[in-house]
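Researcher: Please predict.
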Amino acid sequence: MFLKKVYHIFEKIYYNDTPAELFKAHLYKDKIVKLFVRSRSSQLQYDKFLDKLMKAGIIDLKVVENTEINDKEVDLDSEKIEDTLTLLNKYIEDSDFELKKERVKTLLKEVYLEACEAE
């Protein structure tokens, strides 16, 4: 018998300068909320929004701020980018242990490749 899940404990909210007065915070009572902040032009409005959400009786709140990167500010050419196996091999070389490092590298590579192929 299939039972439809009618109650969701996890909710996502996307904040985009949402006025606190129009936000129905009571819908999030007793829920775990993840708030994605897309844009915030007024700190006061944002604080009112958060205050209303917290007073609604949510269980927990995680805030994810706008994570856009301005490519003009980041110079990727100056950064040395290495693949995972290279980083693992360097870690093994720099580690101080009594095992044969080449054997450890081989085992680690096998495990890594197997993990990449797993679904």
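Model: The helical segments are 43-55, 84-94, 101-117.
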